[in-house]
């Protein structure tokens, strides 16, 4: 039996970021506001072994992030968190939350 995935702006945004950046799950869950350079449209990722990578973000990914920030995330009780993606119960998204999508 297929499970229906709730298509929220957050889940759509998560999907687009993971799809078009290729970042690892461990990198994704530590993704913070400061990691996005809005001027250049790049994402700064700290990867394995402390290596830093700069990843360009597509315009549709940036638009999805903006939509999430202005809507669903702004309404969250954890909106003051430095992490970009939040869970309903915490100011950070954990691996289990991504895997349950």
Give descriptors for this structure.
101 residues, alpha+beta, hpI Integrase, Chain A, three-stranded antiparallel β-sheet, 4 helices, 3 strands, disordered N terminus
Structural class: alpha+beta
Number of separate helices: 4
Give the CATH H-level superfamily: Intergrase catalytic core
Element order: H for helix, E for strand: HHEEEHH
Give me the count of strands. 3
Shape: globular
Low-confidence stretches: 1-5
Short structural description:
By secondary structure, the protein is an alpha+beta fold. Helices cover 34% and strands 12% of the residues.
Q: How would you describe this protein?
A:
The chain has 101 residues and is of the alpha+beta class. It has a single domain (9-99), classed as Intergrase catalytic core (hpI Integrase, Chain A). Helices cover 34% and strands 12% of the residues. The protein contains four helices and three strands; from the N terminus they run ααβββαα. The protein has helices at residues 9-21, 25-28, 59-70, 95-99; strands at residues 36-37, 42-46, 52-56. A three-stranded antiparallel beta sheet has the order 1-2-3, with no helix packed on it. α1 (9-21) runs antiparallel to α3. The model is unreliable at 1-5 (pLDDT under 50).
SSE diagram, text form:
Layout: H1 9-21, H2 25-28, E1 36-37, E2 42-46, E3 52-56, H3 59-70, H4 95-99
Antiparallel strand pairs: 1-2, 2-3
Helix pairs in contact: 1-3
């Amino acid at each position: 039996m297929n499970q229906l995935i709730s298509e929220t702006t957050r889940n759509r945004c998560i999907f687009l970021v993971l799809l078009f950046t290729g970042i690892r799950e461990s990198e994704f869950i530590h993704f913070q506001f400061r990691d996005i350079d809005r001027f250049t449209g790049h994402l700064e990722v700290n990867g394995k072994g402390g290596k830093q990578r700069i990843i360009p973000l597509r315009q549709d990914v940036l638009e999805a992030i903006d939509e999430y920030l202005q809507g669903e995330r702004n309404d969250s009780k954890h909106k003051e968190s430095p992490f970009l993606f939040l869970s309903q119960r915490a100011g950070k998204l954990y691996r289990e939350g991504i895997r349950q999508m």
